[in-house]
Amino acid sequence: MGRYDLTDDKRPGAKAPAAVLLLAVAAGGGWFYWQTLQQSPAEPGIQTLSLPRLGNAVENPVGEEPADGAAIAETELPEQPFELPALAASDQPFRDAMLGVSAALSPWLQTDRLIGKYLAIANDFSQGLRLQKHLGFLKQTEAFVVEERADGLYMSNQGYRRYDKLAAAIDALDVQAAGKVYRQFKPLLLEVYAEFGYPAERPMEDLFLKSAAQILAAPVLERPIALNKHALFYKYADAELEALNPVARQMLRMGPDNTRIVQHKVRQLVEMLVNSKE
Fold it and tell me: How many Cα atoms are found within 13 Å in the side-chain-facing hemisphere of 104?
């Protein structure tokens, strides 16, 4: 274990893992599991539709076919050069960049020291941990809800819905834009990573790979999940589920639909990164 090898909070209703999901997904870690992912069913192909050629609006009135070969030349605006800010001044630039990746991420970006906090939680997740001291700036606004049945207590669909907005924000991530943001801010990520004190031979990518691997390894359960009530919190009635690491247990709290959404986006980013390295 690394420097954050500490005991986690095992309550099924604890805070959301938004920070690490956002960073792990945006960072694109996971090509370590590429061979496994190749065995998954192939995604439906994406059909690329070409735009119709348009002639000059004056020379080709409405209703007339444009002359052969006539087309409006594309005008590409020059890309503005990116200026990397200092780490201490990076919150707003990083926030703006991530909103360009998915505008729905806004609720999970309203804090200071964004890069440092996200990286600390990603480091926890890479070890299968979720430490409350690093999740203090995130708060689940809706209370944890259980379903009472004749034969006991169960996780409820209402409880799963608490994570719909987070899953939708991750689903909306622009894969190519996420990779670009990661490359642009990588020097600042490395600056924070150096403070963790890992050996020089362990690259930062290893942290993201392991974090993404934890997300991909989480089980997706369609069956009802029974709970046992304790003094201040709930535990999974199934000993095998309770024995899962905190990352997997957190994914269970999101429900099967949201877990699939997050895992699917990670797979998309994995494919993008693998192809970009070839």
Answer: 14
